[in-house]
Amino acid sequence: MNATSPILTLPNEILAKIFGDNDLCDVDISRAIQVCKLFKENIQGFVGQKLTFIVDTASHLGWRFVRCLLRTPEIGEHFIDITIEWDRRNWKRWRYDRKPWTADWVWTELEKQQIVALCHQWEINENTKSLILGGKNSEALLPLILCFTPNLKALDLGEVDISLVDFGTPAPGGDMFLSVLELLGHDFDDDFNNVNDYNKFRTAYYNFVASYRPPNHSLFFFDNLQYKVGGNIVGPKKVFPGLASLEIFRIGGPKDDRTVHGISLRHSECFAILLLPRIQSVAMSSTFASVDLLEPFSDRPSTLKRLTFIHGFTHQQEPDRVVFFEKLSEITSNLEQVYINARFSSFEQDHSRFFEPITRIFLKNIKTLKSSNILVNGGGFDETGRWNFDEERRREVARKQKAFELIRWKLQTLKPPPIVTTSKIIPEVLKHLHRSDVFSLMLSCKALYDICYPDMWANFRFGSHFDWKRFRASVGSAGASRRLAKSIELFGAGGFEHLERLEFTQHFYTVNSHKESPKEILYMLANQIGLGNTPKLSHLSLDWPRVVERIHFRVEAQFHDPDSLRFYHTIKEYSQKRTPEEFSLRLVFSLASLPRVNPSSLLDLQKLRDLEVIVKWDYNLDVAIMAANTLVDILFESPNLEKVKLRGGGSLNDYIRSAIYAIKRGLGRLWEAMAGLQTAIGNLKHLRSLSIVDALSIHPSFLLTPPPSCRSISYSGKTTTSWWEQFANFSFSGIERMTLTCTDIRASEGRVIKQMTGEDLTPVGKLTLGDVKISTLKSLTISPPSGGLGTEIEFKGYPSDFVDCMLKKNPQLSDECLKPLAGRIAGSYTRDRNKVITKVLNKHVGALQSSLSAALTKYAEDIAFKTLRETRSIGEEFQSEMREKPIDILIQQFERELGPRLVAECTELLQSQLREAPSISRPHPSDESEESEESDESDESDESEDEDY
């Protein structure tokens, strides 16, 4: 079915409503005209279009529009609203940003004749006419456009920029003036020889620009209105058609609040606007720079209803301003609303003494104006008739209060939609929204407020975190924590009754001074929990950082200070009254050394569900074994653990000689401590997830196995052949998800292990497992393979047949598991081959480009010589030959010879190099030898160091 058919069948009344919508800009209207004849007829017959006229834009839109009006004057009858935008030539954007420079516009002779006739008909002055014909300043076109728009109702002159050129810098130099003059087409005299003569170029620039400005007024628009000079009316005797029915007028300025490029109006220009035949509303956001003695050109009352003055009167005394407003009020006897917010000059000390007199002048001379409808710089008369300098603010507060009362009344009376009251969808949706979105949703209506408010307080986090936007209530800094504690002390803690999850990140415990101590917030929380104000609290997460063990004295004080300890004692007492199903605990802490804070003394470990421990084996073996035994004790006291993660780090090369000998002497005790760790892990009957991340680097042959209840296992780090043999022989019963990120042990690390254990290490890649016992996997994730072009694809750090054994033993692995594995293999396969493709194509495309360029040059030269010899002219026949023949011959040669040859050569190279290892995928022989020498030297240096010890 044709999608446009329903649109084309709409009646003209509906189409007119669509095209007359104020949401459609003039660009949309112009595009709609080009869609079909039906749209064109409806739009062109509809009076109500808007026009945006851009002054001096590089695309000459304004000049083109006037050309269109000269050809089809009826087009102007459709416009009721014109807005002016200012896009003057900008030297900085042209010089540095490579933006186009607006060139001069050129009229045809017929167009010039039409313009001269129109200017004579409507009495547009000679200066404006000459600049329209000159094609440099498109601002001069506005009086001409007003001759074509008899139905115009609104005119907005925008944020006026009177300067012909914006330099883009506050301090232009002589070279800039010279550059701009050249761009504008200035004719230089012989005197302009010294480029460094700043004053001469500056004077020449401003004289040149002044020749493109109106001599007596701020804009060409004002230069072509009626004024009274010496009792005589000057200017056009007839009002432009575009001003005859104008009702709304606005002028802004100065642009970007800069008076140097903004507009400064004269009093007489203001009077000329106020006395337009049908004017209803005037808003002037411009300055009045000087006082002119011109009077209003007519004594008849203005039709103006609404008047707005914003900005100010520079270089004027306040009494002069009062006189101006007195004259203005005499000709605007129909005013119903006045708003003045004008800046004052720096000459007067007390500006406010003129506010009330100006207001009383309007009320005295305008009988239709009510005292409640006039404001002068925020001041006005209240209901009792007294002057109030803050009347505008008082009215705004009253308006907001009234709106608030109305909204509150609606919230109390309106019935919520059924989806809010009966559906359980919204709480589920809230889980996926950021807290700012939930807050906005909460303010939309009372029904959603009752749902969103508990959700905002359900999760509370103290300390910064990467996903802070997702947490409903997050207090990132210690200062914010103190402010929260103070707020709760003053106003109570109404939201804590909805608290379900409480979290402290490691940044909460990071302190730089005593003032940033977190004990205040801990004391406040202890009070709330102890008073029973958190009945729904069911989860606590504590991220005790490494500083808790290698403890900063101020942090250590947090765990010995009575106020801070009160929180942990309170939470321990709170959790002991609840079952593991009603309350859970997550703990992250470090065993980088012997801990100074014992978690079991502060927390109820029976409720511990999630444990993450940082393990870093130190060169002090005794301390390391004691830390391991501490971990074993914690595990034995936490029978309800569901998730355990052990994180470590470091390289065996980090151990100095004394540590190697210490470990060698205490290897039995170390193995005994690890065996105790295995026993503790094996006794966790509720464990579901076990992760080992470089945690057993001190003895990479030790395999820590999960209990039967575990469903997910993750190993990451260095392994040995002994570790893999244990892995193959362990059944991993119940494991459904396995993640492996294994790496090979370097030769230097192998020598360290040999010195500790006396075992020679075989590279893991040379090991063949033959078979594995694990057969329950549903998901397997392993680190990416290596190899590619010229080498076999292999998984380094794994036995050679590991992947084959796992795939054969676990046929139930889903496609969701195999796709990532295939993607990693494909990435390794294509890495070097993509380089080959790029190199082959670059080489041959470059050669093809050279061949095409040389052939085109030869053909063009031959055709040009032949044609010149035959025609003895470069006329139309010559131009036609040069446009067609060289290209035709080149394309024929490409189709016949160059193209097939390129395809054949690329095919041959790709077939050979994508299957075999080309030079780009192999290191240079010299590089290879250098690398081997370097590795030998490093190995020898390692051995020499060991011998020195």
Structural class: alpha/beta
Biggest pleated sheet:
11 strands, parallel
Q: Kindly, what is the distance between the CA atoms of the first and last residues, rounded to a whole number of angstroms?
A: 87 Å
What topology, given as strand order, has the largest sheet?
A: 18-17-19-20-21-22-23-24-25-26-27
The portion of residues forming beta strands comes to 5-15%
* Average pLDDT taken over every residue: 78
Number of strands: 27
The radius of gyration over CA amounts to 42 Å
Estimate the global geometry from the Cα principal axes: flat
Q: Catalogue the unreliable spans.
A: 256-261, 512-516, 546-555, 917-949
- Percent range of helical residues: 40-55%
Separate helix tally: 35
Descriptive overview:
- The protein contains 35 helices and 27 strands.
- It has 949 residues and is of the alpha/beta class.
- Among the domains are: 421-615, no CATH class; 678-843.
- The strands form 6 sheets. It has an 11-stranded parallel β-sheet with strand order 18-17-19-20-21-22-23-24-25-26-27.
- Helix 16 links the parallel strand 13 (337-343) and strand 14 (374-376).
- Helix 7 (109-122) runs antiparallel to helix 8 (126-134) and helix 27 (621-636) runs parallel beside helix 29 (667-682).
- The longest helix is centred in the last third of the chain and has 57 residues, at 815-871.
- The protein is flat and about 115 Å long.
- The chain starts with a helix and ends with a helix.
- The relative contact order is 0.03.
- This is F-box domain-containing protein.
- Residues 928-949 have a biased composition (Acidic residues).
- Residues 913-949 are annotated as: Disordered.
- It comes from Arthrobotrys conoides.
